[in-house]
Amino acid sequence: MITRKEAEKIFSKYGIEAAPKDDPIYNEAPSVRFINKSTRTKRMKKIEIEETNDTEVFSPYTGNCVTGEDGEIVEDDNSLLFVFSGMANDYAYISDQLRDLVDVEVESIEMGELVGKINHIEGTLMEVDNGWNGVNYYCFIDPNK
Questions:
Q1: Using CB atoms within 10 A of its CB, is residue 141 exposed (0-12), middle (13-18) or buried (19+)?
Q2: Is 120 helix (H, G, I), strand (E, B) or coil?
Q3: Rg of the chain over all Cα atoms, to the nearest angstrom
Q4: Is the distance from CB of 65 to CB of 57 less than 8 angstroms?
Q5: Looking at the DSSP assignment, which residues form a beta bridge with residue 140?
Q6: What is the pLDDT of residues 54-97, one digit of tens each?
Q7: Beta strands in 17-86 (DSSP E)
Q8: Which candidate, 15, 35, 80, 131, has a CA 20 to 30 Å from the CA of 65?
Q9: Are residues 78 and 97 in contact, defined by beta-carbon separation less than 8 angstroms?
């Protein structure tokens, strides 16, 4: 704890004058005011998954599998923003919605930079570690918002 003199020295450094000891403020009961802040902040949630041999990725918003029976990406799911293949180090799918949300040409930026650009968006980013095959990224948003 610091002394009053030490506090006054710090105050004067910032141009603040301490209240005198007989100030009426010292006769009031202390009070605490709680301000409710929304716990719902718009932010991309990140889920890390260690892949097993049969891992399939589903949209947390629509319940649709990202890939069809033929192994191709199902592009008509409005919740899917992009798929990035770690093994190929390239985007396997980029939605028009994503292009509207970011201010750069998506193909020209690294995955880490894209994550930084979408972090303020309310959605879910799944990072699927495929071991020596690299890390795949799947990004979703709620199509109803």
A1: buried
A2: coil
A3: 26
A4: yes
A5: 80, 124
A6: 678 899 999 999 988 888 899 999 999 999 988 888 999 999 99
A7: 44-50, 80-85
A8: 131
A9: yes
